[in-house]
Amino acid sequence: MRAWLTYSQICGGVQSGEYQCVNSQDLALLIAHQYCIRHGFDDIDMKRVMGVCEHSLPASLYGDDKGKKWCQMVYNTLKALAEKSRSGACLEPIEIMQQVIRYATIAFVANFTKSFRLSTFKSITEGGRPLTNLTLQLNHENLEFRPGCANSRTNNNLTGDAKQELITKIGVEKVRSAVASDVSKLGDPQFTLTLYDNTKYLISSPQTHEIVFTLKQFITEIRRGEHNESEA
């Protein structure tokens, strides 16, 4: 269910122009994937292709001769996908949705970067006093810790300090775990961020549970990708 909602958000964002898919081949593949989820590979019908293109392509791209060109590109892409499926590739609907989501987190990284307000940030490894009132900018690649508070969860609504300065930057691939504290304390919920080099940070935020959930998703995707590469 969660994958379907994310997938639908991505498709809707591309159609509305919120997410800019600048590569024509990527866009044709995205539309072809939508056709596959709706109709499968058994009967690739041009009328159905035209219907999917009309409802899925940005309005600026579907019209006059442009629409015909895109329909043909999507049709050709579907033929290639059907051949790939016959060769044994896994192209079940859930796998297609996951492919689209993985692509989107890379291609539309700016849209998938969230900003969270942190109450405190402290290095357990180095000790010292915790820093207070920070912003965490998080996407599938990096965690960036900046001074100042986020006014919302988008990059465009940070205070001036949070936009300009960077306290520390951590690659998501370096994160071993993010574990919310089981101990109920006064103040905002806490979580421990542990890196593969055993560096640890104790962080508190009113959005702790969402941060931990998002990080676990990214960590799982990275490990799944490494596992798939090792089997290839």
Automatic annotation (TrEMBL):
Highest taxon in the source lineage: Eukaryota
Protein name: Uncharacterized protein
InterPro entries: FERM/acyl-CoA-bd_prot_sf (IPR014352), FERM_2 (IPR035963)
